[in-house]
Design brief:
Length: 291
């Protein structure tokens, strides 16, 4: 599998795949979206709007231009074919890991995280996952589908194992999901309290971080398919980023469930753009700890 430069990249992330440490890609998939579809359009809208914010982050005191990052664009998916679309995501991520690089994925619906976690688990056996979200995503099936954006974390647990998943900000789900979570994962409802202690406990193990943008309150991000009131403010997310910087071995990030056309103001996409900038810089600085 080979990757070429794309005409439209995220900000200054124009390095070739071969020379880069971090690889951005987007997954234009919303085949199982249960309420308001449109996340397939997030990746390229994020790229267009990325030129509206600075390349330098005063939070990280770092500049995207100082690191080697590739953006390989939207993956080419078979429209409507869930299983084969997930296979494309898996093969892409597997190649990135095989080449000793690190992924930053832009969704797409949250189901696209499942194959990334499969590839990450194959590379890093002691993998843990930090999951920021409004929803549990712990159903075994949803509307008759085993593979769904509402089931992905339940199925990830099948290969990750007990007590390797750490959820924060959860405020929506079926009662049986919350009951199941008490036995099998760590789950913090309603806020990010305890994230700093979790980070301390995971400081020296491989950690993948997945962020559903609906962890933020709809007043902050109305552009998402299943908005859930009672969420985080952006300053809460910035605090979470400060905690992530304390980890020693981050193996990838994703940001999913942005639906840009549900927010004509562009504010939701601006939130996503700034978040991705911070995630890329956190990951690049994390890699540099080991170089």
């Amino acid at each position: 599998m080979s990757f070429k430069k794309v005409d439209l990249s995220f900000q200054s992330c124009k390095n070739s795949y071969e020379e880069s440490d971090v690889v951005i890609f987007s997954v234009p998939m919303d085949w199982t979206t249960s309420f308001r579809p449109g996340t397939r359009f997030a990746g390229n809208q994020v790229r267009v709007d990325s030129f509206g914010i600075e390349w330098y982050s005063p939070y990280r005191q770092a500049d995207l231009k100082d690191f080697k990052t590739a953006d390989i664009g939207d993956l080419d998916l078979p429209i409507g074919d869930v299983e084969n679309s997930l296979k494309v995501v898996y093969e892409t991520t597997k190649q990135i890991y095989a080449d000793d690089k690190y992924p930053v994925m832009i969704g797409g619906e949250h189901l696209v995280t499942l194959p990334v976690l499969q590839a990450a688990k194959e590379k890093y056996q002691n993998l843990h996952v930090i999951h920021l979200d409004a929803h549990t995503d712990l159903r075994a099936s949803f509307f008759g589908r085993v593979l769904s954006h509402a089931t992905f974390m339940y199925h990830a647990h099948q290969f990750l194992g007990d007590h390797t998943i750490h959820q924060f900000g959860i405020r929506s789900g079926d009662k049986h999901e919350f009951d199941w979570a008490e036995k099998h994962i760590y789950q913090r409802k309603f806020d990010f309290e305890g994230l700093d202690q979790t980070v301390e406990s995971l400081k020296d193990v491989p950690v993948y971080i997945t962020i559903d943008i609906d962890v933020l309150d709809p007043s902050v991000v109305p552009g998402t398919g299943t908005p859930e009131p009672g969420g985080m403010q952006y300053k809460d997310l910035l605090w979470a980023f400060e905690q992530f910087e304390k980890l020693s071995h981050i193996v990838g990030f994703d940001l999913v469930e942005l639906n840009p056309y549900l927010d004509p103001s562009g504010a939701s996409t601006a939130v996503a753009v700034k978040t991705i900038r911070e995630l890329v810089l956190i990951l690049q600085k994390n890699i540099n700890k080991h170089s």
